[in-house]
Amino acid sequence: MAEALATEQFRRLPKVLLHDHLDGGVRPATVLELAREQGYAALPADDVASLSRWFAASADSGSLVRYLETFTHTVGVMQTAEALRRTARECVLDLAADGVVYAEVRYAPEQHLEGGLGLDEVVAAVNAGFREGEEVVAGGDADAPAGPIRVRAMLTAMRHAARSREIAELAVRHRAEEVCGFDIAGAEDGFPPTRHLGAFEFLRQANAHFTIHAGEAFGLPSIWEAIQWCGAERLGHGIRIVDDIRLDGSPVTDDLAGAIARAQEDPGAFALGDLAAYVRDRRIPLEMCPSSNVQTGAAPSIAEHAIRLLDALRFRVTLNTDNRLMSATSMTREAELLVDQAGWGVPELRRVSVNAMKSAFLPFDERLAIIEDVLKPAYDG
Ligand SMILES: O=c1[nH]cnc2c1ncn2[C@H]1C[C@H](O)[C@@H](CO)O1
Ligand SMILES: [Zn+2]
Question: Where's the Adenosine deaminase domain (predicted)?
Answer without folding.
Answer: 14-376
